[in-house]
Amino acid sequence: MKTILPEVSDGELRKIEMPGDKTFTLTIETHDKDTRILKLEGVEHLRCNNLLLGNVIFDVQKIEAPNLSDLARVTSMDNAVSEKGRDYLRDLGTAVEKGELTFLRLESSYGCHLDALCRSYTAG
Hints:
Blueprint: E1 2-4, E2 12-17, E3 23-29, E4 35-41, E5 45-49, E6 56-63, H1 68-74, H2 83-97, E7 102-110, E8 113-118, E9 120-123
Antiparallel strand pairs: 1-6, 2-3, 3-4, 4-9, 5-8, 6-7, 7-8
């Protein structure tokens, strides 16, 4: 696990954009009132829960070796019981380990929790 955008700790999620072209952009206001952008490209799976007014961010992480539970959550396959479903999750894990996909997680002290599987991301 690697923390990206460490300066956003205690910042607030201000805007989410999903234009429909497999991109997803988060605009975050830092504690110092600076703006940071996290843009995901080639989004394959995304799960965003508990979006609340005034989401306070704890951190944004790149998870280099997600476990099957992480992958099941982001794909909404939490109850995958078939062998085919488990094989699909293992294939996604292999793609992350090979660098073909990136697993990102945004954790909040209050509000939004987001997991995403994407081809690439930019942060700044």
